[in-house]
Amino acid sequence: MNRETLSSPAARPIQGWPAFYVREAVLDEEIEQALALRRAVFCEEQGIFEGSDRDAIDLHARLLIAAGSQLGSSPSSVLGTVRIHEASPGLWWGSRLAVQRTMRRQAKLGAQLIRLAVCTAHGLGCETFLAHVQVQNVPLFEKLHWRSLDTSLAHGREHHLMQADLAHYPPCHDPLMGFFVDAGVQP
Ligand SMILES: CC(C)(COP(=O)(O)OP(=O)(O)OC[C@H]1O[C@@H](n2cnc3c(N)ncnc32)[C@H](O)[C@@H]1OP(=O)(O)O)[C@@H](O)C(=O)NCCC(=O)NCCS
């Protein structure tokens, strides 16, 4: 496993903070939880979709999650999710990035999901990785080495078409194991 922490050498553990795994969803239960989280965020919280946010892309997308358990362990709550798909050879898209409300800006789950999304695609031959990013999240993506290519209005909201700089996202060949995120360590 590629064990990654968010720590610096002088990192200090924070009592009570758990560790997370950011990896591909495998079990039916975690896939259902990820889809439920998407529904809660994109239908109920943001009101972008009515009833369901699922579409044809889900039929061939890979679903990534942030969860408290490693692959093969008993399932635990899914706290974040994102999906990736290849639209044409070498061209990959990320979409439906969502972190549970109470976990936002707490453990960098969003950043780690973005990282696994792009690194996984890179490992699968991605040459260009794009996403339509809601305008309020553009600074987050810029911080993570994405650049804005264009703006548009989608689902009544301003979005930026953004591209990841693959040089900052080394290929990940094992998304089922993914990354270990030690949220109990504070730089
Ligand atoms: C966008 C989202 C996934 C980010 O997840 P998160 O777990 O809160 O983000 P992280 O904690 O990984 O943030 C990483 C860094 O970006 C910063 N950041 C997060 N969201 C930000 C924002 N909207 N604007 C500016 N900075 C932001 C964090 O403060 C953190 O900064 P630091 O590294 O200096 O500490 C989450 O806010 C969310 O689920 N939003 C609702 C759904 C949504 O908007 N989806 C995205 C559609 S494009």
TrEMBL record:
Matches recorded under InterPro entries: Acyl_CoA_acyltransferase, GNAT_dom, MSMEG_0567_GNAT
Protein name: Histone acetyltransferase
Occurrences of domain N-acetyltransferase (ranges): 20-182
